[in-house]
Write a structure and sequence with these properties.
It comes from Streptomyces luteolifulvus. In the N-terminal section; belongs to the cytochrome P450 family. Belongs to the cytochrome P450 family. One of its GO terms (molecular function) is monooxygenase activity. This is Cytochrome P450. The strands form 4 sheets. The protein has a 5-stranded mixed sheet. A 3-stranded antiparallel sheet has the order 4-12-9. The chain starts with 16 loop residues before the first helix and ends in a 33-residue tail after the last strand. It is an alpha+beta fold. About 45% of the residues are buried. β1 and β2 form a beta hairpin. It folds into 2 domains: about 120 residues, no CATH class; about 270 residues, Cytochrome p450 (Orthogonal Bundle). It contains 20 helices and 12 strands. Protoporphyrin IX containing FE binds next to α12, α13 and α20.
Length: about 500
């Protein structure tokens, strides 16, 4: 079914800041606002997030931007973000960037409106698919895919060729979610060109991003036609995947797709409809790989730039894994320092750099900013994570020790939010962290990472963030000596107060 849009071409449910924030005039905006165009001076349509970071630094913890007649409120001050995490007064807002994906993913988990019954149904049916037991069944599949990457990198290193980090991480994470989620193989490492499914997926993400940065969707008519073709391609591929699974022997092997097709809701007995299954498959293929691929790419960039950090992480891998060729599930969780490297990378470049929250009722944000029911704001995670008040005067510096348990405990809650917040936070968090820690461990153990001379980090934005043009040279390490001790010496970096509420969401969030 086609999505409804307002007369201005905005997805239905959109409410302008003018209606939602009675004291909007008290929220600062950039100087030099142009009539019609708004706050476009000093901004590029290719880098909306990085421009917002610039404005945030100048304008403070809450500010607004206007573009082509639409006003947006941004929040990143820790007190404001903590207040927005109050689930009794606020909820996820399916904002523009996310709503633009509705034609592709409909009421799939990520794009569902809060009131849509399929959200709760799918969440309850799929949450166990991200619990510990399910993760243990995914682990050997993740390892298999990671080994395809290392074979690919071994060839590059033997030939003295640098590797294309974001390209290869995207292949890896796509193959991992396809394999663990749906028992599918896109053959990404064997192809010289991008798989057409990936091209179509990137096309729809780019189109959704562009819709945010043009005055009217009518300006994108050519792109809209290509987008429709991309969506049709995604649907066809997914339908084939589902058909293949239905005609297979029927012995579910614990993939997410098996769960979607075979599991009834534990209380109501209800099942996901075929159309909803299609939307969830697309959702997981999209949500499950770009963000993790970006997180891995940024982490590899930082490791290549900080040989001291890389050496410490590598020493941990050698100690914990010894010379086992295939580390087990529990051995990944014991890589505490590698995990900190990942957390610190996600702090500086949270690859899903913002999320939107809306007021469930008329309320006062942090006791200071009145909001009407339905008013919404974008939480600028990437700026929250760089607030010197929380992270210190050196907040821009890469330092994994910020995630030592004692340092974590000393910070106020809701100051590290790469996976969003509340009931609608990332369902794939543990999946992503396990996959990324495993892969970083395998790569650190096998290679020295050498940066390309002269490379300076540039960040591309297309709903998610990625280091642009990042290539690394690899030097093969000798096979590590057997570990002297595999006893972990450091304790978990998890929030000690956190406690399981459902298989994927922790009470502390
Ligand atoms: C480093 C990797 C990842 C990051 C940074 C990330 C980030 C996020 C964020 C910030 C949200 C909340 C969005 C919002 O409030 O609008 C979210 C939701 C979601 N993520 Fe992730 N994600 C990652 C990996 C994954 C993976 C691997 C999967 C699937 C296997 C996944 C599936 C989802 C889904 C389905 C939702 C929607 C949940 C709901 O609303 O019920 N994500 N993610």
């Amino acid at each position: 079914m086609a999505e409804t849009t307002t007369a201005a071409g905005l997805p239905s449910g959109f409410r302008g800041a003018e209606q939602g924030w009675p004291e909007l005039h008290r929220i600062p905006h950039p100087p030099h606002r142009l009539p019609l165009l708004g706050d476009v001076l000093g901004a590029s349509r290719h880098t909306p997030l990085q421009d917002s970071l610039k404005f945030a630094r100048r304008l403070g913890p809450i500010f607004r931007r206007r573009a082509f007649g639409r006003e947006f409120v941004f929040v990143w001050g820790p007190e404001l973000v903590a207040d927005l995490a109050d689930e009794t007064r606020f909820a996820k807002h399916v904002g523009l960037g996310v709503a633009n994906l509705r034609p592709v993913a409909g009421d799939g988990l990520f794009t569902a409106y809060n009131h849509e019954p399929n959200w709760q149904l799918a969440h309850d049916v799929l949450a166990p698919g991200f619990g510990r037991e399910a993760m243990e069944t995914y682990h050997p599949m993740m390892l298999d895919v990671a080994e395809r990457l290392t074979r690919h990198w071994d060839r590059a290193s033997a030939a003295g060729r640098p590797v294309d980090v974001p390209g290869d991480m995207t292949k890896l994470t796509l193959e991992t979610i396809a394999r663990t989620g749906f028992g599918h193989d896109f053959g990404s490492f064997e192809r010289s060109r991008r798989h057409p499914f990936v091209t179509a997926m990137v096309g729809t993400l780019t189109y959704a991003q562009r819709l945010n940065t043009v005055p009217s969707p009518l300006l994108l008519r050519g792109a809209a036609r290509r987008n429709e073709a991309d969506i049709a391609h995604l649907n066809r591929t997914v339908d084939e995947l589902i058909r293949a699974r239905r005609t297979a022997s029927g012995d579910g092997r614990g993939h997410l797709l098996d769960r979607m097709l075979d599991t009834a809701h534990p209380e109501t007995g209800e099942r996901l409809s075929p159309q909803n299954v299609r939307r969830q498959v697309i959702t997981f293929l999209v949500a499950g790989h770009e963000t993790t691929s970006g997180a891995l790419s940024f982490a590899l960039h930082h490791l290549s730039r900080h040989p001291d950090v890389a050496a410490r992480a590598r020493a941990e891998v050698d100690r914990v894994w010894g010379d086992t060729p295939s580390p087990g599930y529990d051995q990944v969780a014991r890589l505490r320092y590698v995990r900190r490297v990942l957390d610190e990378s996600l702090r500086l470049w949270p690859t899903a750099p913002a999320y939107a929250r809306e007021a469930r009722e008329d309320t006062m944000l942090a006791g200071d900013h009145p909001m009407r029911r339905g008013a919404w704001t974008l939480v600028l995670t990437a700026m929250l994570h760089r607030d010197p008040g929380v992270w210190g005067p050196d907040a821009e510096r890469f330092d994994p020790d910020r995630f030592e348990p004692r340092a974590v405990r000393s910070r106020p809650p809701h100051t590290f939010k790469p996976f969003g917040t509340g009931a609608r936070a990332c369902i794939g968090r543990q999946f992503a962290l396990h996959e990324a820690t495993l892969v970083l461990g395998l790569l650190l153990r096998r290679y020295e990472l050498v940066p390309e001379p002269g490379y300076r980090l540039r960040v591309t934005e297309r709903l998610t963030l990625m280091p642009e043009g990042l290539r690394l040279h690899l030097a093969r390490r000798r096979v590590p000596a057997p570990a002297l001790s595999s006893t972990p010496t450091e304790s978990a970096g998890e929030d000690p107060a956190s406690e399981l509420r459902c298989p994927v969401h922790r009470a502390g969030e």
